[in-house]
Design brief:
The structure holds 3 protein chains of 3 kinds.
Chain A lengths: L1 E9 L5 E10 L4 E5 L6 H8 L7 E6 L2 E2 L5 H7 E4 L11 H5 L1 H5 L4 H14 L16 H13 L5 E5 L7 H18 L2 E6 L2 H7 L2 E6 L2 E6 L1 H6 L4 H8 L2 H7 L13 H12 L13 H10 L4 E6 L2 E7 H13 L1
Parallel strand pairs in A: 3-8, 3-9, 6-7, 7-8
Antiparallel strand pairs in A: 1-2, 1-4, 4-5, 9-10, 11-12
Chain B lengths: L1 H14 L1 H32 L4 H16 L2 H12 L3 H25 L3 H9 L4 H35 L8 H10 L2 H32 L8 H9 L1
Chain C lengths: L1 H16 L1 H35 L1 H16 L2 H12 L3 H25 L3 H9 L4 H34 L9 H10 L2 H28 L13
Classes of the chains: A alpha/beta, B mainly alpha, C mainly alpha.
The structure holds adenosine-5'-triphosphate (ATP) and magnesium ion.
The site of magnesium ion has 4 residues of chain A, from helix 1.
Chain lengths: ~325, ~230, ~220
Amino acid sequence: MIEFEDVTKVYPDGTKAIEDISFTVEEGTTTVLVGPSGCGKTTSMKLVNRLEEPTEGTVYVNGTDNQELDKIDLRRTIGYVIQEIGLFDHMTVGENIATVPELVGWDQSRIDDRVDELLELMDLSSDYRNQYPRELSGGQRQRIGVARALAADPDILLMDEPFGALDPITRENLQDEFLQIQERINTTILFVTHSIDEALKMGDRIAIFDVGEIVQYDTPAEILSNPKNEFVENFIGENQAFKQLSITRVREVMDEPQDHESASAEVAPAADGGEYYSISPDNSLQLGLTRLLSIEHTTLPVVEDGEVIGYLTEDHVRSYFDSAGEQ
Amino acid sequence: MEPLFISPYIEFVTENFDQLVARLVEHILITAETVLIAVPIAVGLGVLITYNDRAATAVLWAAGIAMTIPSLAAFGLLVPFLGIGSDPVVFTLVLYSQLPVIRNTYVGLTGVEEAMKEAGRGLGMTRRQRLRRIQIPMALPIILAGVRNAVVIVVGVAAVGAYIGAGGLGEFIFNGIRQGDSVMIVVATVVVSLLALAADYGIATVEQLLRIHNGEEVEQRVSTQLIERAV
Amino acid sequence: MAGVVSTTLSGIRYLLNHLPEFWELLAEHMVLVIVSEMLAVSIAIPLGVIAARHEKLKSPILSVGNVAQTIPPLAVIALMFPILGLGFLPSFVALFIYALLPVMVNTITGLESVEEGTIDAAKGMGMTQNERLTKIRFPLALPVIFAGIRTSTVINVGTAYLAFFIGGGGLGAWVISGINLFNMPQVFAGAISGAVLAISLDLILAAVENRLGSTGPASAQVAA
Ligand SMILES: Nc1ncnc2c1ncn2[C@@H]1O[C@H](COP(=O)(O)OP(=O)(O)OP(=O)(O)O)[C@@H](O)[C@H]1O
Ligand SMILES: [Mg+2]
């Protein structure tokens, strides 16, 4: 768990990077910090592992004021993916990943196993182990950066634009991969991006930053359906694809099963949940997405005249969203 | 024609072979002594000045000034204090070696990418560990390039040291000039130059191996390829 | 320490007592250094520019240049003796050759080090090859070229002392005869004036470099 309590950071040169910020990242959840360049996202992140110290206020890590913790120990227990990746060019991929386990003194065989495991997790063949970072593509380097941060099983992970500077397809793949990984490792994650799409996809909660302050801290569904003010609206609205979602009907995108029997069977548990857990075919896709994000299931029944006539999944919305984004 | 042209040189070499070898060994010993004294001092200074910008400017400036003192003059001035022989020569050469090695140590250590240093901090390395695991390995080839620079200077200037009785290949050169013996001059200058070249090439090879070890892509010299293939 | 101070003082006294001779030696020394350096620079830069344009010329020139720079200064001076004999001319030629190569090598590497992207941008704006050279490559290479000129000038001042061995004159006369006769004030007077000369020339070149608007730091001469 990470808690910011009235935190202000002023750099020695007088730059006020963040002012009076408070928010909590619950254990095992992902909070995404999103906002324009220079609004203080990286600064907030560095306050957690004490790469920077707060000017005012307190940052709690797992309930303890992090000023009371030893800096070096703290950093070793928190995984950190830095914005510039920062792989050590003179070390092999394997040595890079093994950095923290070696610092904390794991024995060699355990380190080796862990490196293998992480390479596999990142979908990189074990041939990469002995290559040097300079020989890798941008996407591979970012994956190594993430693997290095995960190496010593941290229970907190700080990820500063871990999938930045990537082409949309590789980026999408890495995001998907990471969502799967996240389900397995159940870590508390603070994630920085300046893409609202990525924030909506990756976050349990999203903190929307304007210069130096948090404008809205909510779940993705809440942010989409109740943007707090114009800044947030603009931030979401900047994306044409989102506008498109609000003027597209569910009917145009949903899947219609061959026969009603199987459709009912598939969505039955959710259909019992009352109106909120279903959607009408004439509602907008934006509402569909909001509901999808707020329920546990990845499938939403489409109900007309009390009968299930199809279903909507996140994949439908996403592929529609992507094609709208490309236009 | 050709054998006639070369024969006086061959004759000189065969007649004075023992002398040549003895002078060559002296020359190498002076160079080695200098390097053994100079490099630890210079690397130490180079590391120390990374802690303080003002000290860095001052030390680099002083080392630069030391290089402007003409070698011959430095030898002459040290004779009253250190006597005739190799001591004043080694002392001067140690001074001359400082600039390239200090500068390259400093540049090598401070030139490490900010992102790498930040990553090191973020992963929980202490200052010492960052120095040992990141900065020094990255700087090592650059420091070695400085040492190579210094060694080439040392081999060259050591030749002048023969004028104040330090021995070495310079003795043949000065005798040759004094006696108007062209053959002696040519042979001695060729041997001195070959020594400098060999040192340069040898250190450059080690430097390349270090770079390869650091995962850099380099255009390999023949020697590097041979060693790489052998290992 | 007391020894150092008294040597310094007696050196200065020697210099003041032999001013006319000092001016003569200094003039000889400066002519050797400055004329050979200027000639070397005015030939080395155009040669470097031509070489940088022709792939075939470039790499042999670079490797010959790098090898030649490792040859000891005394060796270059001494080799002039069998070829040109004793006197001013052989000394001058030796200094010229010794200054030529570093400047040429730095010119080539300086021109080479300009980023491809910058060159492409210039091409994209429709600059001809000559315009690219005069407006882009050369100004950007200037700090590296100047580093070469400054280093070779300082070395040149020191090497010129050795010219006395082959009758080239200059401040070496005081240092060498001082060593021979164990006349320390004379050695000191000869030595310190050369060091001051080297530092002054370096500062003047730095000022010229600033005037020309190149932004390279004074310590741009990092050995690779
Ligand atoms: N070490 C520092 N010293 C002074 N000012 C700094 C420092 N680091 C960051 N800043 C300033 O603090 C503000 C916030 O910077 P920060 O890096 O946290 O932004 P960010 O939200 O991560 O931006 P980006 O999306 O571009 O990465 C900026 O105005 C920045 O210039
Ligand atoms: Mg940032």
